[in-house]
Each structure stands twice: as structure tokens, then as C-alpha cells.
Design a protein that fits this description.
Layout (H helix, E strand, L loop, with lengths): L3 H18 L3 H10 L5 H10 L5 H9 L6 E2 L4 E2 L13 E3 L2 H6 L3 H5 L1 H4 L21 E7 L6 E6 L10 E6 L4 E6 L2 H10 L7 H5 L1
Antiparallel strand pairs: 1-2, 3-4, 4-5, 5-6, 6-7
């Protein structure tokens, strides 16, 4: 098994190859020339709220501290960096600070999912049903500025779930499902899918 650092680096290197393969070399090179890793201060701030954050996510943030309207010293970055099990939707990686800044947003609108308010909206049985116990780390928004889909690490699963499982929220039709039992497994899934979310369309956008 690779270490967290090795997995994060392998993911990053493979993503670069996917951009190059799909004709996005210029897009990637421009991003790589601007992006920086998260500061130790920002990582420590994130750990204050999420002490159980996967080491592989920390290592990924050390390589690039977000790709979602992320203001770096040289320029702003907006780059597709992640995917999910949902075909056709590339996702951005939030910065360490953005993860903290958005930590309470799901509570403002997601109670209908946790409370199973509607029988026709699928919610994975591995997700808890108690808003008071809810502990989600929001780490990614989809290409539609997060309005269509968001990704979370779930530190408060039900007895049928796994602590640290990765959840995908989808809007219209709504659902909240487990896509991987861990963040490591999630990254490996994207690697095994050969970064299917990167194609000619996503490179050109």
C-alpha cells in the first residue's frame, strides 16, 4: 500500500498526464506555474476543526491549496481537479481555508436529506439520521459551482457506514450516496478510472 504522500503525488502526476493526453497541456502548465501548496498555518487551522482528516487529503493540499476560484499571489486558479462516480461532472478542489469557511453550509440546507424527509430521495443507509451528530468536511464543488453536486468526507456515519467515507450529493434529482469507504479509496477510484472526468470538453471549459 502506498503512503498518503505517495498516493497524493501519484494522483497529482496522473492528473497532469490526463490533461496532457486530452490536449490540455497549456491549461495544466499555466495552473502548475501559479498554484502553491497550503501553508502549515492553514493546515493547522483545518486540523483544528477536522482532527481526523485523512492524511492523503493533507498531502494533496500540500501540493495544491485549492483550484476553486483560488487566489494565489500570481493569479486566480479555476481548474477541474477531481471527479466522482457520476459521469460527466468534473469537480474542483477547495482550499484548506475554503473547507473551514464552508463547514456549516450543509446544515443550512441539508436537513431534509439527513431527516429522510422525502421517501423518493435516496440517502445511503451509511449516512446518519441525526443533524446534531453531523460532521461533514466539504472538500469539493462540481463544475456547476457546486449547485449540482458537492463532495464530503463523513466523520459521523451511521452504524452501517464507515468513518471517513466519501459522500456525493447530487441535486435534481436529489440524492446523497457513499462513493468510497475512505478518501484513499476515493483517490484510487479516480486513478483506476484513468481520470475519466478529464476529456476534451472539460479541458476546453
Amino acid at each position: 500500500m502506498p503512503t498518503a504522500k505517495e498516493l497524493a503525488q501519484a494522483y497529482y502526476d496522473g492528473l497532469k498526464e490526463a490533461y496532457y493526453r486530452e490536449g490540455g497541456q497549456e491549461v495544466w502548465d499555466r495552473f502548475a506555474s501559479v498554484a502553491q501548496g497550503a501553508s502549515q498555518e492553514d493546515i493547522d487551522w483545518l486540523l483544528k476543526f477536522y482532527p481526523d482528516i485523512p492524511e492523503s487529503l493533507i498531502e494533496l493540499l500540500k501540493l495544491v491549496d485549492g483550484t476553486y476560484y483560488r487566489e494565489y499571489p500570481q493569479d486566480k486558479v479555476l481548474l477541474y481537479f477531481l471527479g466522482s462516480d457520476y459521469e460527466g461532472y468534473p469537480y474542483y478542489l477547495l482550499s484548506a481555508r475554503q473547507m473551514v469557511d464552508t463547514k456549516d453550509q450543509f446544515r443550512q440546507w441539508g436537513d431534509y436529506l439527513i431527516d429522510r424527509e422525502y421517501d423518493d430521495i435516496p440517502v445511503d443507509e451509511g449516512v446518519c439520521d441525526d443533524m446534531d451528530k453531523l460532521d461533514f468536511l466539504h472538500f469539493s464543488d462540481c463544475c456547476n459551482n457546486g449547485g449540482t453536486s458537492q463532495l464530503f468526507i463523513d466523520f459521523s456515519p451511521s452504524a452501517k457506514g464507515q468513518k471517513g467515507q466519501v459522500l456525493r450529493y447530487l441535486h435534481d434529482p436529489d440524492e446523497l450516496v457513499v462513493v468510497a469507504d475512505s478518501f484513499d479509496e476515493y483517490l484510487q477510484m479516480l486513478i483506476d478510472q484513468d481520470y475519466a472526468f478529464i476529456d476534451e470538453d472539460s479541458v476546453e471549459e
